[in-house]
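Chain A, query sequence.
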Amino acid sequence: QVHLVESGGGLVQAGGSLRLSCAASGRTFSRYTMAWFRQAPGKEREFVAGISRSTEYTYYADSVKGRFTISRDNAKNTVYLQMNNLKPDDTAVYLCAADQGSIVSQRFNDWDYWGQGTQVTVSS
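Chain A, predicted structure.
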């Protein structure tokens, strides 16, 4: 089992940047595939980015490609989401997810573990 805690959210103007962090408990972090999802009010939870266990593979939603970068540091049990050129449509609660499988699924139902989320608000 893994416990996830997100941080780094906040209020930023359009065009600005934020870096989210997700710290994981336990000594087996490197065995988990990791991802970021987001959920805006009244909308379904959507996939943002995912990363394989060894960092070799990364995946992005079309809406964030070229602006967001996911990375992980297995020595620090942490996954990051660097968000640049933020837009008002990026406003949402951002959630970290972990799964022991090797597939980076874009369906939120496929992920086993979730953090509580961190709010990102982008003003125009």
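DSSP finds no helices and eleven strands in the chain. The chain has a mean pLDDT of 96.
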